[in-house]
Specification:
The structure is a homooctamer of 239-residue chains. The N and C termini of chain A lie far apart (62 Å). Chain A has helices at residues 25-29, 42-55, 68-77, 112-124, 140-144, 147-152, 166-173, 194-201, 216-228; strands at 14-15, 20-21, 35-36, 61-64, 82-84, 89-92, 101-106, 128-132, 155-160, 178-182, 208-210. The first copy, chain A, has two domains: 11-94, no CATH class; 96-231, Rossmann fold (3-Layer(aba) Sandwich), CATH 3.40.50. Chain A is an alpha/beta fold and 239 residues long. In chain A, the strands form three sheets. A five-stranded parallel beta sheet of chain A has the order 8-7-9-10-11, with helices on both faces. A four-stranded mixed beta sheet of chain A has the order 3-4-6-5, sandwiched between helices. In chain A, strand 3, helix 2 and strand 4 form a beta-alpha-beta unit. The longest helix of chain A has 14 residues, at 42-55. The radius of gyration of chain A is 19 Å and the shape is globular. Chains in contact: A-B, A-F, A-G, A-H, B-C, B-D, B-G, C-D, C-E, C-G, D-E, D-H, E-F, E-H, F-G, F-H. Chains A, B, C, D, E, F, G, H: Residues 100-232 form the PurE domain. Chains A, B, C, D, E, F, G, H: GO terms for molecular function: hydrolase activity. Chains A, B, C, D, E, F, G, H: InterPro entries: P2CMN_synthase_LarB, PurE_dom. Chains A, B, C, D, E, F, G, H: This is NCAIR mutase (PurE)-related protein.
Chain lengths: 239, 239, 239, 239, 239, 239, 239, 239
């Protein structure tokens, strides 16, 4: 069944047939488009990464949510790409000079994939990144022991599943802008991350914002934007 | 265990044992019954399509939600059938003269299967169809660039997942009747399309109606009924 | 606390301080903006209606969801206005020549306010309107008795609360485009209209679309747009 | 790790180690215990059926929710058993003289497994059973054509998925006690049968009761208890 | 705004303007229509009761969900009416000879209004009624003490709020058909009766059916239909 | 409408007409029945308290969820009663010698009513009680400053609304049995306490149990039962 | 009933009996504690504001969610306070030199209270604030007309109810860090702001973070923290 | 992509790279950390068990939620470990002298895995354990037959799926502290254990606390803490 002919070429759009890349986005928002790997074939991921890289040679370009097959295809086809099996990301090219620091804080070891996605994203989007893991609230000495490093960052990403209490505790310790990322870690009445999401939305610590469940990418974009426009701080001796 | 004998033959019903075709529907509603493929065997799909086609030789008959196996069985058994692996549909026969135009608009590439099902259905049900894809709201120039084509249609089907914002934007641009189709594209708090569904039900643009998640078929039926009874428009030069 | 100065005047916008009327909407979509009365003071409703009427003297302008106080204020201040206490609407001015016919069908007497809002809206937006009430599915002879009138309409609005089954029954009787409106009539597990909403979204009759709970206005806008562009039908002898 | 010794033998309980059969139930409630197959191994199903049959030689005993493997194991081990692959049940033994009639009515072909489970259960629990299928509300002539047979039954079981409207329509046609069974047939906003469940709980037809989603068994037990204690009716000439 | 003329008179319908009584229902289903008082004015309730009584002089007619004002209006206008302030019902006229027995069992004192509505309804619909209250599962000796009376009934209505466990316990004691009615008694995670509703739908006792939250009326209709067609039992010496 | 006669007297039950007191409960469970004030008239509360006190003169008896009117009626009629307007409770009589210690810990000042209900209940049920308030996790020094007092208790009740993170923090600090009580304090996505409830059910600290939203009473009963059977601890010097 | 003595004085805490102010928070996080007015008496609000002001004379202190009574009490008792009836806030004292700019963008006039709370909060927490209202997506020219002003801000707060689509559109236009605030504006399937919340969490525009429904305060705190540490921008000529 | 260096060593933490063991927990809370097996490789489970055992040679250490592969790896690598395939646990080492008794009560055979996890956990955490299975409320004689044994325990764990009614019945029989564990046993409207969870949270029996769905571990920890600090009881002759 032949449909009527589709739309013709438009400025600011690169049409690959199965996708139309928004090549104008870097100009418009300061950041290039990203390859969201879910539902795409390994071949499409490779082609999209290559095309984006050709369009933006002076930036790093990113692919997220890659299947194992897509990771292998990228590694085979694009030797310059850096593939992270934990965060399921691939990066091609080098970001411009990094500015500011994002600290990614994760409650438990099961939150590592989301934390890794957030960390990689923030760096691709132009910020230095520090990762602090396994500091859940059931052992407070762990998070209290890194308080100064939290305070020295320009933006915090706090990743937690289950009851999602870590952002409230961190948000009470320091006044750094804090993005909470609920993860789908948990079972039963965690409802795939809903319990953590609700906990974070209702945090008693002021100044906590939240992204979608497992959305390390969105948190990384946001945090990089905050960090890279932050004025240099005098107290960041320890970074 | 033998149950009591089942009901006997009834007028307007064609009994195949595992299904009773409502052969009276074309007379009653102007449209023939359709084969809903989910849960049916490839053999049943083939037989149902063949039977419907024999009953309604002057119409196109449609099967939806076909598994890959069912698609292959239809292609093998019914050489005249047109099978669409993207929309997972099969069509047998030719629709009567097409009247009016339905524009199917999709936000992202992941929404393609639902858009294809809607487009095929609208055409089988008697309308011309135009497809416009990958015009999500995060790059407004894409949708603004097709405004005139939207305005020229007799009915719009707008397909979107995630937050489902596209119908609100389109509904503010033109006054054409608009059916919004939420898709299950998304993750986490998209809850399998619920976020998009709620967004569309609460659209601030007046005159937006909504169908079930991923229900391209229902939107196609409705839009074709609107388009094919629309009076010809003077401004549709570009179609 | 003085904030920075707000935005200046913009074309296509009439700024009243507490609201900015989109005076360009008639040009853009074919329909003027409407006063949504919820949360507005009686004085604001009166001023908005008067301003819209002055901007669009050749059209009828509409206010919906009016409190009793707002209804009384409109009646007192705008003697030409037609106030409907059942549908909680007010209309000022006369719509252009009406085209096509919308049939508004309501399941029970408790659905009357939503049906009235839908009917008034459809007429203000330019369609003839016919209202058929109290034809719930628990007494099928009532809906079967009006089948021909349903079939003669250009668009149907079917209003129902509780289990919301009426659209499925009507949608199986005729092939006219059908918009289902769930109402918040019910108790317990009706969850304020959610049961009816879900029932309508899952209708087994093809070609049913749905609007938000109690959204007679949205259904009226949509139906009028369908009806007024419909070609005259030969079979509508009985209207 | 050895736990303290478990409880010893108790009257009215037959302990098989992995299950304790409530052999007193027939005496207490008039009906023997049933083998719920979900989560049990084929061997356990066979042994439980055999044990129940030995305990209640004068009754039929029933196993439900059998996997294909369990069905095959029962057929191989218990040659007297009647296995139904549609309803996923097995029956061993003969029920006492059947009394009264249960009519099982199903909306669509996809509802067949639940209808079959209900029908088999009602017969094992002592009632005559009549099955009427594919009479969904989108083609009313189908259900209107069997009105007299519905009226002649002592109890009705009405099975439907999607919007679950059929019980409301049937409940408005006849005054026979009616048990509605929502099925998980549907997609998207059907939420695995929740839409149908809510629709049935909110039925506008008086005297409709509801069981859990896909619970043909529960409906069958209840209906049989109603039918077998019903006084013979004078009007049931057609049964 | 004048709408097109409404539908004319139809057989089997008594049109009061604000409502159309289904006077054919008694013929069709064996039971007369009922006045659902929610959302109706006291005057409407009085007129509807009077009209129904005039149409069905040989039956009792019922009004439910009456406000205090409506109860007072009925008592003042219709001296023959029996008004029950606990169940919020009014009854006019006498039911035909009662047949069979319905036992209404309530868990707690807060469930009394729903139990009273169920009891009155069952009697109006033609069954003898026995009421057993305050037999919640937290004091098992209370329900065990009435086991024989439960067993002697033809149909049971079991009313409970909070966790809704009583139907499971009763359903394990006797084999009488059992309708469970969840009530909105509770707080917090009872979600207005949802916890009890879910508990009853998932009852481990076979043969439990459920109606909507607080729907004593629906349970009463159903139970009366079961009881009045039950054959006389030999063991009911104690009734 | 006269129903059949209700049940006669039963041992272990004191029938007041509108309620049947389970006077056997003290014997059976070690604790007397309690007056749940919600939905009861002030006169009923007074009579129930007086009756319970007369039945159990050696114990304290408790009424909860009292309206202001009920509180005043109790104070006027029962001069020996202790009424707490914060926790909305009344106590009549003296508990036996208190054993063990329950520490009630509350996150914020808005949680005070629930904490007070828990504290009063625990004391009536026989435990010493210590109250620690306003130690929310957004200021960790507050909870860290009372760590030794937490450790010295025999059972902890931790009350919190919003995200409900306090039990996780406390549960990581000490190994005392901990009952978490979610409160309805919050707004928006707290959903009346659901966010706190889910947070507590998913606590990453082992050994946290939970009661219903705002259920200070239930927590108090449970904690007293734990505390009063605890063996004296050697380290409780500071209590 | 006398409980055991409560905890004694602690450093960093100012105990008012009904509340314990966290006077250490300014030192710890850079921002003073705030008076959350919900559930507090007018007298408590006045005393808390006065105490916070005395503790932090060099800062502005803020009270939010004030009832009309509390607003009047503050205006009467604290003549230096600035009370905003729209945002329901009161401010006492002057913030230090403002740094950076927060733009608060609201979709509709009904969102004004939440936008006002956000704007006042951001200024009290040390940022310049610009407010842009009534730029909903159904009239795109309104938001496109202010694109440059959006781009010039250091942080954006985007407030919207109903479907909450505005953040996706704004987030596609500029690369400024963006905090989305869902409001409870809407009806039916908006579920008190849930639809907007889900829409924002699933935004297809990268870099959108979200706060609780109606939480203008939280968004203001976060945005001020971002803005006041932002390096001066060269392109902000138009501010 | 190389991130900045991670945090260095900290006291009370044993860093294995993929996890940081909280070796201080035994000191802090009286109980060692536990290996939560979900999402861990068999090799990680073995190493974590071995490390924990080496750190706490005088205690038993526990791993839960083990896959079949992890169970086999533990059995192969750690010959002293006791692996329970029903409860999916492994235990290494011997607990100190057991004190007090926990009774684990399960409603149905399908609840066995959760009951086994609870029983093993309670014993590892230092309590004697008694297991009572298959005593669901639909056959009350089963639970009434073990009443004395329930009364003799120091703490009860009551495990049930479906409607979760067993804790209410047990909580009305004895006054022993009772922890209810909802299981995900059920289908349809059980929603994976939500129905049982809500039922238990709303139990009408006072003093019932609840843990997450299927959380036998949490219940075991809590119950052991209660039991092992309970004073010896005089009435426990039958244990």
């Amino acid at each position: 069944m032949t449909h009527l002919p589709d739309q013709g070429p438009q400025p600011g759009i690169h049409d690959l047939g199965y996708a139309r890349l928004d090549t104008d986005r870097l100009e418009r928002t300061g950041d290039a488009e990203v390859v969201y790997g879910a539902g795409k074939t390994p071949e499409q991921v490779v082609e999209l990464l290559r095309t984006l890289h050709a369009t933006h040679p002076g930036n790093a370009v990113l692919a997220t949510r890659l299947t194992v097959e897509a990771q292998e295809a990228v590694a085979a086809a694009l030797s310059a790409a850096v593939v992270d099996p934990v965060g399921r990301t691939a990066v091609l090219g080098t970001p411009p000079a990094l500015r500011g620091t994002v600290a990614v804080v994760a409650a438990g070891t099961s939150d590592a994939p989301v934390a890794a996605e957030a960390a990689t994203t923030a760096r691709v989007f132009g910020a230095n990144v520090e990762v602090i893991t396994d500091v859940g609230v059931a052992g407070l000495h762990r998070i209290l022991g890194v308080r100064e490093r939290l305070d020295a960052a320009d933006c915090l990403i706090v990743v937690a599943g289950m009851e999602g209490a870590l952002p409230s505790v961190v948000g009470g310790l320091v006044g750094v802008p804090l993005i909470a990322v609920p993860t789908s870690v948990g079972y039963g009445a965690s409802f795939g991350g809903v319990a953590a999401l609700l906990g974070m939305l209702n945090s008693c610590a002021p100044g906590v914002t939240v992204v979608n469940i497992d959305n390390g990418f969105g948190a990384g974009v946001f945090a990089a934007r905050v960090a890279r426009r932050a004025a240099p701080r005098e107290t960041k001796d320890d970074v």
